[in-house]
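Onboarding guide, step 5: your first structure request.
Type a short instruction followed by the sequence, for example:

Predict the 3D structure of this protein.
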Amino acid sequence: MSNPQSSTMWFVGYDTTTPFPGQPTQTLAKAQALGYDLITTPLTTPVLHARAIDTVSKYLSDTKDDVAAPRPLPLISPLTPDDTDLTPGDNNTGFVARTSAWLDLGSADPVIAHVSRQVFNLEVAYASFCGIQHVLVSGPVPGSDETQYARALLEALSMSAHLQFFVLLPMSGELEDAGGDEHHLAELA
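The system replies with C-alpha cells like these:
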C-alpha cells in the first residue's frame, strides 16, 4: 500500500482596504500576473458611506425635533454606479469582496441596525450579482446583540446559494479597523 503524501496548498492574496485606482478587474489581472491568487476589494466606495451617514443623521435630527409622531425607519436607496467600482464579470471569482466595516448589524439602536442591515443586504446582493463567491464580513461590534448579527448573516446567506462568508473576529478583543478613516455607524446612536 502506498501512503499518499499530503500536500499543503497555499493561496497568496493581496489585501487592501481602499478602492483600487482604475477598474478592479484590471487590478486583479495585474495581481495575478505578479503571482497572487486572489485580492480583496471593497464592495462599495466612500460615496455610499457618506450617503448612509447623511440619511441616518437627517433622520435622527428630524425625529429629535418631533418626538410625538412615530415615523417609519429610513430607507437607503439602491446602489448607484458611484457607490461601487465593481461590475459583473467572469473573472470576479478571484476577488474576496469586503463589506463595509462601518456597519453595526447587531446594534441595540433600531435605526442603526435597520440601516446597517439594508446596506449589508445591498452589498451582498450586488456581490452575488457580480459573480463574487467570497465575502469578507467584519465581526460583531463589542456589546452588540450577537443573535441579531447572526440573523443578519443568515438572511444574507439566503440571497445566493454560492456565497461564502468569512467573518473577521478580533483576536485581541479590539475591532480591526478595516474601514480606514470612515466613521462607524454606531457613533451616531
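Each response can be followed by summary notes, for example: The mean pLDDT is 82.
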